[in-house]
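Could you help me review a protein record that somebody else here produced? What it holds is a sequence and that sequence's fold in token form. I need someone to confirm that the token line plausibly describes how this chain folds. Take the sequence as given and treat only the tokens as open to question. This is what I was given:
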Amino acid sequence: MTRSHGPLTGTRILELGGIGPTPFCGMLLSDLGADVIRVDRPEQKVHTVLHRGRRSVVLDLKSPAGRDAARRIAATCDAVVEGFRPGVVERLGLGPADLRTSDPALVHGRMTGFGNSGPEARTPGHDINYIALSGVLHTIGTADSGPVPPLNLVGDFGGGGMLLALGVLSGILQARRTGCGDVIDCAMVDGAALLNAMTLGLLNEGVWQDERASNLLDGGAPWYRTYRCADGAHVAVGCVEPQFWAEFRRLLGTDSDPDFDRREERARWPRIAARLEAIFLTRSRADWETHFAGSQACVTPVLSMREAAVHPHNVCRRTFHVAGDSIHPMPAPRFRSSPVDEPGDTRPVGSATRDVLADCGFTEGEVDQLLDR
């Protein structure tokens, strides 16, 4: 099913294929109630989560008839999102200038790695390249490991698809107010840099060292990192505030350790960390979870993805939708007046071609001609 309710009900988006951040943007908008129409290639592989909740249309965008069909669909939409490399949609006749000629209120969201301008604009790359250029990748990892890619969460999804969704919705609000749409240039380098705003602020203030694992929130501080347990699993420790640190110490029995009394002195960090490593290795993760349950010590188990799906807190809040071996994150954030019962279905490629074309004003004969071609 597609979303039939939600805060974006009545909004229609055309999603011109793509991988990673563009489908994630489409998923976010669809989760919140938008009618997102996705244009796919016949051979497009369906991602069970990222492609959920949308109607899929197969069009040959290299043919005049296919491009004309895409333009006619766009004319019924509030926005278009695409993730092609700079210049590709212009060559197809589907660029902002082409689509906004008949509808100046149309918003055109462009998802790229390096942006649509600058010396690297046409350089190929992936998440790891974009967050490297933004300065973010340098900050993640241990002093010995070198930079460690944080999956593709920072570039593709946080600094990419999520920021594109924000940009598109902002553009729609502006278009409804002024009657004039806009072109949203969403670059993952820019987005990753924006996500790093707080850390850059700390750097500006002189309280952040530009070296990995040397700071409060990058694993340098012994009270903000993970520790291995006796069974090989890990716990996460985040007792930043003094009252939480005091509770943490009490529960571990380190009240009399002088190093723990003066944790603000960086010279003591290696000794504190070594002591904590030894302590946590004495018991299993489950034992530590029980030990810290109900406390204010800010200690939690590091769960695998499948463990997270069945954790009691996440089950209570329905953070995930689990069906057999399939796990979906539930739509977020939550809206009190528009509750979501479950994620939308993931439909086969092209399954809604006829319905969408009819919705967008094509006659039955025109639809038959397009399908024949």
